[in-house]
């Protein structure tokens, strides 16, 4: 599949279903906004597929940039990791190709995805262009299980180990464990914790809903950063998520952390996952507005 970027900025969104072959996008300047709406490992709800598109368009309104929507929402399916991977792989290969094209044209990818499983493709593609990047992974969970350690069989819980080459997803590797910074985790399986410890992954837990910024900067060590955030890292008091874990970060804590990062180091890509869109506009709009405020350091960085 070929993606061609022209110099003409479109005034409307571009929507593509995977498997269409060659397609054309236009983007005159950074950032490049992508909504990943296709099924990856959506077990219980389809809200994340809708949520990805909503956040992408809200971001577009703030940055006056077009949105590329990949895939079409479908019903949730409670599949084990192997079935999920087999079903999602064609779509994820297309996603990886798009990220390759975006980064190959030196654009800044801003990705909104339904599930963390999409990072099997997005981060693998990004690392082909920026192998020097560290990955900040903000999530209530470690997502550092393997097929051998997982107690649930959930594909989204073993993304980082695939990227590290601890098992073969077929979608790419390129990430060393010592370049992962886990932030805000508070629900880690025992076997997963053993893997984190064994492979020397940095783990920064929250204290009273906040992250130690100096510890974060020390862990980054001046390296460029790919920033991943799952909405469940935020306390469910503030944001809906499919996998809820209490005692999370506040939106203000995330906003402050982003501000610290963009002021200190190069941000090479951003992705947000797992936003469970409430069913009505009245419920959605204030939450989306709160998320946009939380992400505002990105708007400033790209103006």
From TrEMBL:
The keyword Transmembrane does not apply. GO terms for cellular component: cytosol. It holds the Pfam family Arginase. SUPFAM superfamilies: Arginase/deacetylase. GO terms for molecular function: arginase activity; manganese ion binding. Keywords: Hydrolase, Manganese, Metal-binding. The keyword Transport does not apply. Belongs to the arginase family. This is Arginase/agmatinase/formiminoglutamase.
